Amino acid sequence: MILTRLATLTNGWNPALRIGLLVIGLVLAFGLPWVMYPPVALDIAAWALFAVALDLLLGYTGMLSFGHAAFWGSSAYATGIVAIETGLPFPVAVLGGALVAAALALPIAMLSVRRSGIYFAMVTLAFAQLVFFIANQWRSVTGGENGLQGIPREFFGLDLSDSFYFYYAALPLILLGLLGAWRVVHSPFGRVMVAIRENQARARALGYPVDRYKVQVFVLSAFLAGLAGGVYAIGHGFASLQEVYWTTSGKVVVMNILGGMGTLWGPVLGAGIIVLLEDYLATAGIDAVGLVTGLIFVVTVLLFRRGIWGTVRHLVRSRRRPDERAAAQEGEPESRPAPARQG
Amino acid sequence: MSGLLQQLFNGLVSGSFYALLALGLSVIFGMLGVVNFAHGAFYMLGAFGAFVLLDSAGLSWWLALLVVPILLGVIGMVLERLFVHRLMHLFPLYNFLLTFGIALILQDLIRMKYGVTSQPYARPSILDGSVDLGLFTYPKYQVFVFVFSIALSGLVWLVLSRTRVGMIVRASTERAELTQSLGIDVRRWVTPVFGFGIALAGLAGVLAAPMRAVNSSMGADLIIVIFAVVVIGGLGSVLGSVAAGYIVGMVTAIGNFYVPALSQSLVFVLMALVLLLRPAGLFGREEGVHA
Predict the structure, then answer these.
(1) A258-281 pLDDT per residue, tens
(2) Considering only CA atoms, which of B199, B229, B161, B211 is closest in space to residue B66?
(3) What is the CATH number of domain A2-334?
(4) B196 partner at 20 to 30 Å CA-CA among A177, A221, B149, B182?
(5) Which residue of A has its CA nearest to B82?
(6) pTM (two decimals)
(7) What is the ipTM of this complex?
């Protein structure tokens, strides 16, 4: 079953279609600030990378981290502090932030992988809340409720105060992060991730050190989430408690669910939709983000669990070849063996 | 010394809320395999239920203590039939996400109606004032909350351990499939147990109304603490969740006495320690760690 699943993973689209999608994606990535307010375009880019980072865990390895705000947020703070204190070019600050996020993720991952399934979600959520309380209390470093303000956009003396230009300065970081995620997913390491998702016990029986793999994916995911959070902090010029709060963790999960977890395009699409939706609600003066996000959760989970991208892919696949239809269905989340309750 | 003792008593009182909420969460998880993220939201609804009944119908707190949990329990059962049930045969994470969405919706609806400021709720007159506990005086109401929650936890324990219904629920909690194969219709008990868990959350909310700030976000941060509590106690273990509730309450209170800045973080540090030393939880079964 794992083998058929792996086959569909890489052969799901024909090459022409894949290249076409990549071109459309790149055109969108480069054209975004022309068609919308540039700060919103930057938000989409940052959240897209954040969502893909989570998807490495949630969609590909089957681990729901409900505490990824900890890494996005800790990197936002660390990036801000590096940028303010050292005045180094912003990509260096962002890299520093991402490294801090990865370092924070290591102990959290090593403790959290001691439980799996639903426990893992609860434990990661709890650890993220711990990070939130620390950020709240450690006022001398984080600025507490005021947040960390006045983060500069230093880049070799270039004037990037216009968000339109900053978007293009930051885009390479985002694209590199996405490329990294793509590389990981299509590597032997990525196959093991999927094997763990499909059947953890079997992966272990085949000799893979499952827990070590999980910790590695977790740290990698936190690093990418950190890249995104750092770019976000530089783009906004501040880092606030909102970045480490559980609502942020929930937001990145809904992006995955809505777009379609276990795909790379899905979370990107989900991020775009959620950011634009929140922007629309804010400009229209509708104060109901929680209500709307909650409804999206309920409707998606009840009615189309594959998410938008997963549904599209499923339709395309099942129309093409009947023999592939069986294979595609085998990989459905619905038919996944339910892990034991305690697990 | 009496200061520390008083803190410890504070810990028992907040532990009473943790215990009641963790108990409901645990019973639901045991029976359905569902971690109910909306548990905190129902706690909040319980407090608002008491507030609305008093405000619009003049119903006393004592009546609310009876009516609100029943009402919420029924709502919980409807919710279970309409939504939770459909996802039960799937990956358990889907129900976690579903109830997260429900929690967001409930919380935001209440915020839109009542705003973010806290609603006032007076203590019932009989429980107003303080009682002399020897070393210090303590508010009567808080003493009542503690005694009430201990009594209720004891009652639930009695029902679970001494009655036929309790036996079925415990058996289904421990080994659902085996219980089913012994000819007991486990499914029949799923909806009532879900409703019961929700009713307990609502009850905790009514208890909280006179002593805690009644606002739309009162359950949101609490539910994360409760998650840590059940990880510490061992989710699915009824005794474990109640005991962990009181333990966490007291540890937090002692922390608050010595290092106030860290008191909110202590529960999560405790959880990390438990994960390190006894991943199944203090009262959990070892076999559950890796599956």
Answers:
(1) 999 989 999 999 999 999 999 999
(2) B199
(3) 1.10.3470
(4) B182
(5) A302
(6) 0.88
(7) 0.88
